[in-house]
Amino acid sequence: MAFFGAALVRARVQAMQFDRRSPRRENGPADSVRGAEVLELYHHGSSVCAAKVRLALAEKCVEVDEYHYVDILAGEQFTPEFRAINPRAVVPSLVHDGRIVNESTLICEYVDETFDGPALMPEDPYERYRMRSWTKVVDELLHPACADVTYVSCHRHIVRRLSPEKLEAYFESTPEQSVKGAWRQRKRELVMLGFDAPDIDSKFRLYDRQLQAMETALTDSPWLAGERFTLADIALAPYVNRLDMLGMDGFWRDRLPHVDHWFGRIRNRPAFRPNLLDWCPDELTRDLREYGSQSWPQVEAILGLA
Ligand SMILES: N[C@@H](CCC(=O)N[C@@H](CS)C(=O)NCC(=O)O)C(=O)O
């Protein structure tokens, strides 16, 4: 990761011409608990990692001063300006008074440690370990699987609306180390081959196993890391919501009652709708639902539910 002087970064950030679209923006908390410093978030409407950070900020009652919408399905993440902030060309990035904070899990911890507001990490070291076991599994396993699941079920149809030249540029601009290792090649496979992409079934099964692990944990306690709502719940919420937005709640409905109940409680939190649904533009919400529902019979077959 590149580090820059705060002044240089501030100048670069100010020079950037990111579109500040804010579909139906109503970011929950009315009162900021911060001082005068400036908080900026680079994000996208269907990014699970960005949704995680928006949720953490809202649960913490921290208000963002400037949202920069980076359309990752149109290639806006590949500009030199954005790569100066996020060298892997991925959202989200938080810029706090000119200081860049990347990696969604680290951003969430940074937010919790930096600002006042409800604590999102347990005090007790063992409980904190339990919380981090979930955020680690998201980073290492669930997020890479989710990228495949999302692309093959929906996003491949969206990026294929690009002209052949733009699609080629979209593939070639993707850094090798991006969403995960070898993402440039994998993205191309997922877009061009769909459900015939090598090893795609295993990604849906991995997702399913993680939901089952959640079911086991939630049998013993109301929240993933124990008695309290923590960054573990915040980390998993966008991934369950992703399946829900794809019309794939069959992953857990009538199968995993504790996950169902947990997600119902997550959905009822005031921060949920503004941060996990409303930032997704209507057309993208429709695409996720329609393409996802069309893919569901294949997913059911992969999971052995059909
Ligand atoms: N490890 C990173 C992963 C971020 C990531 O994968 N972001 C996705 C959206 S959820 C992205 O920007 N993708 C851009 C692309 O596919 O080119 C984090 O947790 O922040």
Topology:
Blueprint: H1 6-15, E1 39-43, H2 48-59, E2 66-69, H3 80-85, E3 93-96, E4 99-102, H4 104-114, H5 125-159, H6 164-173, H7 183-193, H8 200-220, H9 231-245, H10 257-267, H11 272-277, H12 282-303
Parallel strand pairs: 1-2
Antiparallel strand pairs: 1-3, 3-4
Helix pairs in contact: 2-4, 2-9, 5-7, 5-8, 5-9, 5-12, 8-10
The protein binds glutathione.
Glutathione binds next to helix 2 and helix 4.
List keywords for this structure.
Glutathione S-transferase Yfyf (Class Pi), Chain A, domain 2, binds glutathione, globular, Glutaredoxin, about 300 residues, 2 domains, disordered N terminus, single chain, 12 helices, four-stranded mixed β-sheet, mainly alpha
